[in-house]
Amino acid sequence: MDLLKEKHHPLSDREEQIGKTLVNSAFKVHKALGPGLLEKIYEIALTHELTKAGLQVKRQTYLPIVYDGIEFEEGLRLDLLIEDLVICELKAVEQVNPVWEAQVLSHLKLTDLRLGYIINFNVPLIKEGIKRLIL
Asked: How far apart are CA 65 and CA 43, in angstroms?
C-alpha cells in the first residue's frame, strides 16, 4: 500500500495510530453513505468521525509556502490536516488522476510531514479508494 519505502526511519507510533483511525473512519463513512455523493459531504462526515475518535482535524487549511524568500499566503490548501501530522486529500470521482499522488508527495515535502492519504469515496469498495503515501 505504501508508495515509497521508508528510507530513513519508520513512522512514529502516533502517525501510525492516526493513519489507522483515518482508514477505519473512511470505512465507516463509506459504509453509511456509499459512493456517488459530493466530495464535501464525505469531507464533513470523515471530519466528524475523526473528531469523535478524539483527533484534531483542520479542514480546507491553507499553509503558506516560502520560495526564495517570498511567502505565498495561500500557496497550499489541504483537504484535511489531522493532528498537524497527517495530510488527507479527498476525492469523489470515477477516474483517478496519477498527478494526485505527486500533489500529496509535494504537500508532504513542503510541510515537512511524512504521512499522507488520498481517499476516493466514489468506489464500490473503499479499500480500493485508499492510497497511503510516505516520505
From this structure: 24
